[in-house]
Amino acid sequence: MYKKLLGFSLLFVVLFGMQSVEAASPSYKTVQSTPLKASTQKGAKTLMTVKTNTKVALLSKTNSWAHVQIGKTKGYLSMRSVMPLETPIASYDMNEVMSYKGTDIVSISGVSYKIDPALKPFFQKNGTALKSMLVVPKTKDRTLIGWKQLSFFPLGQPASSLVIDKAAASRIDSLYIPWNPMSPNFTLTTAGPLRQVVANAHAHDPAIDGEVQKLTLNGQIEQLHTAGEVQIAGKGTIERWDISKDTEYSYEIPIRYTGEVGFLNIRNTDVVVRGTSTLKVRTVAAPTKTHVLGGKNGVIGSIKPSKTIRGKKMGKAELAIDKMFSNVNEASVTATLDTLNIPYTTARVGDYVTALRQNEAAGPSKRLVNSATDLKDIVRLVDAVMTTKQMTPAYVHTSDSQLKIQTFHDHVDNAYYYNQYTRAVTAMVADGTLQSIRFKRPLIEKKEWYISQEKDQTFVYDFPVGSIRLVTIDGNTTRSLVMETKAFERPNYPESRIELVSINDKPLSAYQQEPPAFEAKVIESGYRTYVAIRSSDKEWLRNTHFFSVDVNANYRDGGPVSMDKVNLGGWKSSETVIFEMHGAKRLNNLTIRSFGYKDAVYK
User: Where is the signal peptide (predicted)?
Assistant: First the structure.
């Protein structure tokens, strides 16, 4: 939940803290050298040959033809020969709060405005959704006449739909639909062309089960911008869809959309768009040719992000994999592996099924499960996880009724939690059966468990019983550790509790050493503040991973080790670790956490 709230905070920064850029309807350009015709009739006169990348003014269009103007010349181009240019996402110094209570008056940051008559049907139809919005309004003589930007309040009322009539659609330059945990499913229906729709859901961390944003888009949308995991359904036309590259994990966008995407621009190497037979993609740009699967005739991506091609039919491997993902089970996986001549271990087909079911949206490193090579890698990595026998050091920490276990400990750049998604493989195996495996996902499948400690026993929740192995594979480096658990029967209770017995054959007490003496001080460096800690116990310093400090009675700062270079004021760097502080200047209740040690408190 912390990450979700952090995401909302980041969204507020975007909404409130940037400079103004006016939104506008998209212009078009040609994607190939093409004739400009005098009419749409067969055999019509060619007025001129228009070169590639020529900007044109779009006057009107049908499914097949674009009526355009080039200079003073008007004519017709094939819709396949043009695409809309990107309209930058509008951002402003400040968004205002708009409140609506069902009358002819709307309040914007406490000031009352009349609602333009053309917008009254829009307000009356969507009274609940428009109760509280963030807006950059267009006003005239104390009358609201439209919006440069209209956005749902991320922590406001859980609106699940919005119906936009033609008059209102022409008055909205940009519509933001943030992910809302109270209403992740959202339906947008527009009767007129909507200039821009922006959906930035889970841009930096993957959605957990049940929290994927699902958008149903009905009608004509000129520009759609998405960042992060979002599912698209609906019926209509999307003139241009840009998928941001600003994510740190692999994911798939399933499309259950009936209609056409004029230009699909995929900037993210870790994204796959998977359509159905009802989806038609006219023009595609993507990092590789396996970034778009499915769709009419099996449309499949392009060669380079800077180039645009029309889709081509999927080959044998893509068709087989696409079919397999429609129903992932032992029979379909076996058939696909046999069809593609990929070697595998028959006894592990069930484990391959587990991996594929959990990773339709993720692949090793930056590859996704779309080609024969990708599927071969999945098989290879599952085999490596299941056959590894080595035992590497365990990094264990217990604090505040939580147990944190990792197969490795790396100092990461300050507060960049997203580095945790750079790992290739994290897996959990219980008594020889693959429980879970993630590709380019968190460091281990589940690194924190709530614990209940009674006397010398530690009880964990939501955890298998028996011998559990955690495995990470990072490039050519494989690390693993083993935990032993057992069922602890309780008299008069119908369910047993799960007791954690050991980690790497050592009791938990072995990972709870007393912390050493240490010194701490605050360091000002540029516009940042750090807390530096010094100790002669280098093992304890190497294992430090987190700090917390009281900023005030209501807020506590904290974070991982920072790799920033600062002036330590005479302290040796070999005896010092630093953390970046965002809101504190004093070391009130400073607590240092280190793997293998109890918490150290500064006094």
Answer: 1-23
- The answer to whether residues 373 and 364 touch, using CB atoms and an 8 Å cutoff, is no
Q: What is the predicted pLDDT for the residue at 297? A: 64
The three-class DSSP label of residue 281 is strand
- Which residue, 463, 398, 474, is CA-closest to 431? 463
379 vs 352: CA distance, rounded Å: 6
- Is residue 96 within 8 Å of residue 135, measured between CB atoms? yes
Residues belonging to the chain: 603
**Quick one: which of 97, 93, 216 has its CA closest to 153?**
97
Q: Are 516 and 539 in contact (CB under 8 A)?
A: no
The two beta strands, 457-460 and 448-454, are antiparallel
Helix (H, G, I), strand (E, B) or coil at 168: helix
The CA distance from 347 to 353, in Å, is 12
Q: Residue 384: CB partners within 8 Å, gap ≥ 6?
A: 425, 473, 478
Q: Which residue has the higher pLDDT, 175 or 412?
A: 175
**HSE (CB half, 13 Å, CA atoms) of 268?**
27
> Residues 426, 432, 437, CA angle at the centre, nearest 5°?
20
- Where b means 16+ CB within 10 Å and e means fewer, 461-492 reads eebbeeebbbbbbbeeebbbbbbebeeeeeee
Residue 452's closest CA among 439, 440, 444, 461?
461
User: Would you list the DSSP string of 490-557?
Assistant: -TT-SSPEEEEEEETTB-GGGG-BPPPP-EEEEEEETTEEEEEEE-S-HHHHHHEEEEEEEEETTEEE
- DSSP letter at 88 equals P
Confidence grade of residue 173 (pLDDT, cut at 50, 70, 90): very high
Q: Which of 160, 164, 166, 165 is nearest to 180 (CA)?
A: 160
Q: Look up residue 301 and give its two tokens.
A: 């991506």
Q: State how far the Cα of 531 lies from the Cα of 522, in Å rounded to an integer.
A: 5
What is the 3 state secondary structure string of 131-160?
HEEEEEEEEECCEEEEEEEEEECCCCCCCC
Distances from the Cα of 492 to the Cα of 455, 495, 496, angstroms: 20, 9, 10
Question: How many whole angstroms separate alpha carbon 106 and alpha carbon 98?
Answer: 7
What's the pTM value of the predicted model, to 2 decimals? Answer: 0.71
